[in-house]
Write a structure and sequence with these properties.
It is a single chain. This protein has helices spanning 6-18, 73-84, 94-106, 119-134, 160-164, 174-177, 188-197, 223-233, 253-258, 284-287, 306-348, 373-376, 381-393, 414-432; strands spanning 40-44, 47-50, 55-58, 112-116, 138-142, 180-183, 202-207, 210-211, 217-218, 237-241, 264-267, 278-282, 353-357, 360-364, 396-397, 406-407. The chain has 433 residues and is an alpha/beta fold. A 7-stranded mixed β-sheet has the order 4-12-11-10-7-5-6, sandwiched between helices. The two termini are 14 Å apart. Bound molecules: pyridoxal-5'-phosphate. Pyridoxal-5'-phosphate is lined by residues 118-120, 123, 146-148, 208, 212-213, 241, 243-244, 268, 278.
Length: 433
C-alpha cells in the first residue's frame, strides 16, 4: 500500500522556494524520517485529510494542543463568535480573566497568571522572573528537555534539536549560555552536586515533569519530589514546564498527577485550544514582580488575544466539565493502543520500548528502559523512520521523529485504535520483508 503524494510534493516544492525548508517549524519537513510531508487541508475529530485526498488517523494532535480533536464544535463556535466582535484591541477584554479563572482552578498553586503567545515566551519569561526574584544568575535544565527556542535554554535540548542532532544552535554566543547548567534527567545526585558547586548562585531549576521532547520519559520514583526538596532547601525557584503536560496528563497537569507544587508553572499548547497561547504563573509573591506591578519587564502586542482566549476557554471549560470521564477514558484507550502496538512488535520480533503517561506516549526502537537522554538516544532511528513511513502509508499519522511524544484525543475511537494496531502489525511485517 502506498499513498498518493503528487499534490503535497508540488506544494512542498513551492513552499521551499520562499521559506527555509518550506516550513514554519523545522520538524515538519520530515528531515528525521524521510518521505513526503503531507500538506493538510482538513482536520475533523481524530482524522486528517491531505491535499492528495489521503486520510489519516492523527496521533500528532498539532504537537499536543488538540486534546479534543480537530475542529471541535464548541471551540469553533467560540472562535467564530469572538471574531465577529473584533479580532484584537490591544486593550483588556473580559475573556482574559475568564481564562485566568479556569487556569487557577486547574492549578491551585497559581495565584496569578500572565498570558503570552507561545510556550517559548512562557519559559523565557519564567526564567527571567526566577532570576529577578532570587537575584541569582545560574539556571539548571536537563538533557533532552525542550523549553522552546530561548537562547539560554537551547543547550542539549530535545524536540527538533534532538531530531537534527544539533548540540545547541548557531547564533547563540557562548556568553548567553554560560549561566546554563545542563544535567542528566532522573539523576538526583547530579542536582545535589551542582547546588554544592554553585552555592547561592542558582536562580532556578526548569524541568518538564513528564518529558515529552525526547519522546515520552517520566520521572522515576521520587525524582520530582527530590527536585522539590532540594530547590526549597537551596531557595531556588522550581519551574515546572507544563506546556505539554498541562491539561494533558491530568486537568491540573503533572503537578496534580504527582502531587508536587512547583514555584512557577509554564503552560501552552492545550491552553490555547489550537490557537497560540502560552502562560506563566505562580504565587503573588513572585508574580507581583511582573510589570506593571514590579520591575520584571515582559509584554506582548497580541497577548491575551480575544480569539485565542475564546478557543482556550472553550477547550478548558469542556475539560473541566467532563474531566471525570475524559481522563480515565484517555488513559484506558491509550493503554490499549500502546500495549496493542507493543504486542504486535513482540509477535514480529521487533525490539520496542513503550513509554506512556496518560495520553502521551512514545514507542522507542530500543530494548530500553528509556529514562534519560542517554538511553533515549540509543534508539534505532532508521527503524523508527521505516515504521513511521509504513504507518503513514497505512493511514496513521505519527510525530515525524523518534524523539517526540504522540497523543490521543477525546475524538479517537476504539475503531481508530483497532485500525492503528492492524497498521502496526503490517508495518512490522514489512520491516522484516
Ligand atoms: C512545545 C513546548 C514548548 C515550546 O512551546 P512553543 O509554543 O512551541 O513555543 C516549551 N516547553 C515544552 C515542554 C513544550 O512541549
Amino acid at each position: 500500500m502506498s499513498r498518493k503524494v503528487e499534490k503535497s510534493r508540488e506544494l512542498q516544492k513551492r513552499a521551499e522556494q520562499m521559506m527555509p525548508g518550506g516550513v514554519s517549524s523545522p520538524v515538519r519537513a520530515f528531515g528525521a524520517v524521510g518521505g513526503d510531508p503531507p500538506f493538510i487541508v482538513l482536520g475533523q475529530g481524530s482524522h486528517l485529510l491531505d491535499a492528495d485526498d489521503n486520510e489519516y488517523i492523527d496521533y500528532l494532535g498539532s504537537w499536543g494542543p488538540l486534546i479534543l480533536g480537530h475542529a471541535f464544535g464548541e471551540v469553533v463556535e467560540a472562535i467564530t463568535a469572538a471574531a465577529r466582535s473584533g479580532t484584537s484591541f490591544g486593550a483588556s477584554t473580559p475573556s482574559e480573566a475568564d481564562l485566568a479563572e479556569i487556569v487557577l482552578l486547574a492549578f491551585p498553586h497559581l495565584q496569578k497568571v500572565r498570558f503570552v503567545n507561545s510556550g517559548t515566551e512562557a519559559t523565557m519569561s519564567a526564567v527571567r522572573l526566577a532570576r529577578a526574584y532570587t537575584k541569582r544568575k545560574y539556571i539548571v535544565k536537563f538533557e533532552g528537555c525542550y523549553h522552546g527556542h530561548v537562547d539560554a535554554l537551547l543547550v542539549k535540548a530535545g524536540s527538533g534539536l534532538a531530531t537534527l542532532g544539533i548540540p545547541g544552535s548557531a547564533g547563540v554566543p557562548e556568553e548567553f549560555t554560560q549561566f546554563t547548567v545542563t544535567l542528566p534527567f532522573n539523576d538526583t545526585d547530579a542536582v545535589e552536586r551542582v547546588f554544592a558547586k554553585f552555592k547561592h548562585q542558582i536562580a532556578c531549576v526548569i524541568v518538564e515533569p513528564v518529558v515529552g521532547n525526547m519522546g515520552c520519559v517520566p520521572g522515576l520514583g521520587d525524582y520530582l519530589a527530590a527536585l522539590r526538596l532540594i530547590t526549597q532547601r537551596e531557595k531556588a525557584v522550581l519551574i515546572f514546564d507544563e506546556v505539554m503536560t498541562g491539561f494533558r496528563v491530568a486537568f491540573g497537569g503533572a503537578q496534580e498527577l504527582y502531587g508536587i507544587r512547583p514555584d512557577l508553572t509554564t503552560l501552552g499548547k492545550i491552553l490555547g485550544g489550537g490557537l497560540p497561547v502560552g502562560a506563566y504563573g505562580g504565587p503573588s509573591e513572585l508574580m507581583d514582580l511582573v510589570a506593571p506591578l514590579g520591575p520584571m519587564y515582559q509584554a506582548g502586542t497580541l497577548s491575551g488575544n480575544p480569539l485565542a482566549m475564546a478557543a482556550g476557554l472553550a477547550t478548558l471549560s469542556h475539560l473541566r466539565d467532563h474531566r471525570a470521564e475524559i481522563y480515565p477514558r484517555l488513559e484506558k484507550l491509550s493503554a490499549q493502543l500502546v500495549d496493542g502496538v507493543a504486542a504486535a512488535a513482540r509477535d514480529a520480533g521487533v525490539t520496542l520500548c513503550s513509554n506512556r503517561v496518560g495520553s502521551m506516549f512514545t514507542w522507542f526502537f530500543t530494548p530500553g528502559p528509556v529514562n534519560d537522554w542517554n538511553s533515549a538516544s540509543k534508539s534505532d532511528t532508521d527503524a523508527f523512520g521505516r515504521f513511521f513511513r509504513a504507518m503513514l502509508d497505512h493511514g496513521v499519522y505519527l510525530p515525524p521523529s523518534q524523539y517526540e511524544s504522540a497523543f490521543l484525543s477525546t475524538a479517537h475511537t476504539k475503531e481508530d485504535i483497532k485500525k492503528t494496531i492492524a497498521a502496526a502489525k503490517q508495518a512490522f511485517q514489512s520491516a522484516h520483508a
